[in-house]
Amino acid sequence: MVSSDVRTFSEHLKGSKRIMALLGAGISAASGLPTFRGAGGLWRSYDATELATPEAFEANPDLVWQFYSYRRHMALNAKPNPAHYALAELAKRNKEFITLTQNVDGLSQRANHPLDQLHLLHGNLFTVKCTSFYCNYFRENDFTDPIVPALAIPKNLPEPPPYSDDKTAEEASESLQNAMGTGEQTELDISDERIPLAPLERELLPHCPECKEGLLRPGVVWFGEALPSHTLDFVDDWMKEGRIDLMLVIGTSSRVMPAAGYTEMARSKGARIAVVNMDGKDTGPGKLTSQDWSFQGDAGVLVPEILKSVIGEI
Ligand code: OAD
Asked: Which parts pass through the membrane (predicted)?
């Protein structure tokens, strides 16, 4: 029987040195960002994972850029939640704790997670790189939003003032101007397919400033692409260094390899596993045992709670 007992978990946590965490989109759900699978997994009529491929970019770079520009915008407007801060605090207190994140939203970084203890498995929304075969251009920490004017999220025009017979044309125009000036324009939710989204000409998409030829693309790992080899090598070396005490698996459906494979690898190095997930069935590719823990609920609430014995109140 898998435990959900915070007391036994806390005891084990206090005695743990080498700890690894694997994070997925669920940790950022409490910050208002949609996950890939389940509710929120559709972007317009597309499965979000359909748009995350080199083939999708090749065929429809404008659609894929609209998707990623929207995600950049959402991530920039979201704030890290207590789970991000709790893990950052654990990392500051324990230099032998490493976090592997599948998230590209930058929220762990913005919670001041020590960067040398945070390993990005799937890249970062705020890195862009040239798609030309001959060009190696990339730039990091590009937080411009929109990255090019054509990718600005379209806005609703304010409602025109009600028509009234007793207004002169001049007065009507003035009250329209006033309404326009109130800043009440609201962003359209372009993740909803009922909102029309015009195709964009290639010239309007982000281009490489160096070779001037290639389109820029988001610096994330797409399906079918290799994960960054320096990250994989680092994690392999870290795992080989010795026994692992604890593996935290937070807010991931554990469906995507190789990331999901780290849980069983950690187990084979002695780790006890603790899963935090909204869905009690998403416990990873292997079976949890009576030595493990499963905490079901919102990571934003549960992570600070289960780490409290070591990090204190967040
Ligand atoms: P998924 O969308 O597959 O899974 C999100 C997980 O978070 C699910 O298990 C949910 O039950 C859980 N969840 C949702 N809300 C939660 C909350 N408030 N608290 C805790 N858990 C919650 O996302 P990932 O596992 O991250 O890859 O997906 C892995 C990879 O597949 C992504 O990095 C992305 C995607 O396609 C690429 O783009 C390469």
From this structure: none
